[in-house]
Amino acid sequence: MHGKIFMSFHYKDGYLYCEKMRVKDIQEQVPYSPFYLYSLAQLEANYAAYQEALDGLDSIIGYAIKANNNLTLLKRLSALGSGAVLVSGNELQMSLAAGFDLKRTILNGNGKTLAELSLAIEHGVLINIDSEFDLAHIQQTAKALDTPANVLIRINPGVDPEVHPYVSTGMKNSKFGIRNERLNWFLDEIRKDDLLNLVGVHCHLGSTIKKVRIFRDATEVMLGFIRAIEAEGFSLRYLNIGGGLGIDYERTGEDIPTPSDLIDSIRDLLPEDLTLIIEPGRSLVGNTSVFVNRVIGVKTNGNKHFIVTDGSMSELIRPSLYDTYQHIEFIEPVDGKPEMYDVVGPVCESADFLGKGRPLPTPHEGAGLVVCDAGAYCHAMSSNYNLKMTPPEYLVDGDSFTCIRRVETLDDYLRVFEI
């Protein structure tokens, strides 16, 4: 059970290590539980894998900030040369704070506000057109600022990503993207507006995709749209194929595609005059972190066995929200009787679980436990439900660790009511 989890997280003598540090030692030094723990080496290795995969191609790696918005991690990705993918005005502001080149950023979204569009146009951000009203809002904002806007059209290629319906984003009935049969109407509207520069097309299939042929199928469809658009007199620079590459949450030995597998599957299709944009979020940060908890106690109700931890759906909602699997391990030797456990938190909801039906040894109270692969869509989706406070985050770099987000306190929370 205590095999190697991934490059930076590994077991030695029954203890989980992050790079050169024993996680149990970190837990004993951190004054708050639960918390998130990140590996800088893993983040840098993940980014390097995309750089190597894209070698020889004109490309932009656009990190999807919605996956994890920790400022320290953003600054590191920016320093490595990453662009950014934004879905809100506040994410744009965070990109500024992190030092991203905003001309290598993309603003997505099906409900962009006028204030968000104004900020994007002022900073030269690439903007995706998502609907008729979205186009009208972009035109209105560009005219008010008397500033050109560089736009892409978000098209749904209709390729089934074979993922959870909540994270499927590129089918015909998605809330995202234009109606493809209205493409010529959009082209006519853009052609009439001197302040709009149509520079590319965008698609996003979904998240947790594990078959690269899905990206190839979508790329072929999108190149067909590019040819049709250029036949109407436009000259396009960008093909944005979105993100969505999955990671090995399940730990079943499944062959998960690498960034090289993804890029190699489409490389022969790409014209030399196009810049490829990809939007990895999960596959850049997902396996960089574990969510570290303590066991409060063990209980049995009828035929059900429960491990109750101080971590909950308030700090990590992904398993409850999507009914998805994230691997759970102890960070230290535990030799109690093996049972089939549901790992649950203290929040007053039956939906509050971190994992169900896990074969684990019975732990002692206070034992350290981690939810693996917690770097993406975990802290970013945390809440104050049951007045649980947003947990701190720590970053390991070799044999040292630092706090990169302090714990939220009740005083912090009460301050929002000081009107």
Please specify the SSE layout and strand pairing.
Blueprint: E1 9-12, E2 15-18, E3 21-22, H1 23-29, E4 35-39, H2 40-53, E5 59-64, H3 71-80, E6 83-86, H4 89-98, E7 105-107, H5 114-122, E8 126-129, H6 132-145, E9 149-154, H7 183-191, E10 196-202, H8 212-230, E11 238-240, H9 259-266, E12 275-278, H10 282-285, E13 289-301, E14 304-309, H11 318-322, E15 328-330, E16 338-344, E17 353-361, E18 368-371, E19 393-397, E20 400-405, H12 410-415
Parallel strand pairs: 4-19, 5-6, 5-12, 6-7, 7-8, 8-9, 9-10, 10-11, 11-12, 14-16
Antiparallel strand pairs: 1-2, 2-3, 4-13, 13-14, 13-18, 15-18, 16-17, 19-20
Helix pairs in contact: 2-3, 2-9, 3-4, 5-6, 8-9
Poorly predicted regions are: 1-6, 163-171
- Count of DSSP-assigned helices: 12
Compute the CA-based radius of gyration: 23 Å
The count of DSSP E runs of length 2 or more, i.e. the number of strands, is 20
Secondary-structure class: alpha/beta
Strand content: 25-35%
- What does the average pLDDT come to? 92
How would the global form be characterised? elongated
End-to-end span in angstroms?
52 Å
Described by strand count, sense and barrel closure, the largest sheet is: 9 strands, mixed
Helix fraction bin:
25-40%
Q: Can you walk through the features of this model?
A:
This protein is 27% helix and 25% strand. The relative contact order is 0.16. Helix 2 packs parallel to helix 3. It is of the alpha/beta class and 419 residues long. Strands 4, 13, 14, 15, 16, 17, 18, 19 and 20 form a nine-stranded mixed β-sheet that branches. An eight-stranded parallel β-barrel has the order 5-6-7-8-9-10-11-12, surrounded by five helices.
